[in-house]
Amino acid sequence: MALLSSFKNMLVKGKEYVRAKMLNGYVPIFSQFGQDIYASDVVQNCIDVIATEISKLQPKHIRTDTGGMQATPKGSLNRLFKFAPNEIMTTRDFLEKVVWLLFLNYNVFIYPTYEITELPNGNQSRNYTGFYPLNPHQVDFVQNEAGVLHVKLYFRSGDNFTIPYSDIIHIRKKFSVNDIMGGGLNGQPDNAALLKVLQINDAVLQGLEKGIKTSLSVRGILKIATMLDDDAQRAERTRFEKLLASGDSGILPVDLKGDYTPVNLDPKFVDKDTLSFLKSSVLEWYGVSMAILSRDYTDEQYQAFYENTLEPLVIGLGQAFSKTIFTPRELDMGNEIVFYQKDMMYLSTSAKLSLLKTAGEQGLLTDNQKLALLGYPPLEDGDRRTQSLNYVDTRLINAYQMGKNNISKGDNGNEPNE
Q1: What are phi and psi of 122, to 5 degrees?
Q2: Of 294, 273, 270, whose CA–CA distance to 42 is shortest?
Q3: Would the pLDDT of 96 be above 60?
Q4: 224, 297, 338, 381: least buried by Cβ within 10 Å?
């Protein structure tokens, strides 16, 4: 595998490592964990909604100069981000995988493969060749002789690799009491509170299932007034069941030996408000509303979902990628990775028209961008930008008004001022 060979190329032979010392006194050995809660359909649906939305993002390498002007540099990064970060995933697959691993383990490790190029001035440059989301079952944090932090990744195949922590893109969720890992104190998902809700919900669902089965199974008691042996009782019951099956009129003929007493079962089911409360507790845990989960949301509901749930992930992805990919000097030069929301097709038609009016009058959109927002194909000459003349620079307002006054005077027979 290309990934396995890439890891082997990063191994440093003959190096001795010791456990990294943590301020809280804990040994930094973490096992990936988080399978228990994923048996719930509500949990899986919530994560699927978030992962699907994040997978629509388009990561880009941009560079911002001192004047605030942004440019998209040509190079391997944008080529990888546009279609396929690695040979087995598209960009959509890659982002969806990253989100699922993040919610599964509250930590996700992404390994960037690269080739080192020698520059004419003697410096070295990294040419990135791929990005791989990893799913190790155990992670150790160790230090070499120089005190540099490394991460040792153990995989279920039996392989393990020790890589400088600065070369790994590490994204965390609920980064709180642990010094390195997201989640709880042991660097694992802290789902205790959610598990209680899911256990109650599961008990309620099982009770509903049993109540329905009971109400449909026992319908009555047949009392046989004579002494019969087991075989005779079975035969009598069989005869009675045949009467049940063939009783089209609903009246069962029973002889003097039998006495049938119907049983009226009235199982008590959980009320709708309780079921709704249990489900909403899970939705609130993940920041997903019922409207988002059912895909029947308004522009305002999606905007709230984006700002509260998606935007922190978008910002975290950009900062984590930028921190690892670029050197401090490259960051100072304005290089960064930004995850753009490629389009706003989720908007209603009225919201799109409002956006076109506002952004179009300001000259922020090209004709092709306007067409794309409405779902139309581009034009050959669609890179033109148009702007409304109803807006004027605040610094030119006085001169503009003075010019109009002078023209008005000229119309009255006076010589207009230049």
Answers
A1: 95, -10
A2: 294
A3: yes
A4: 381
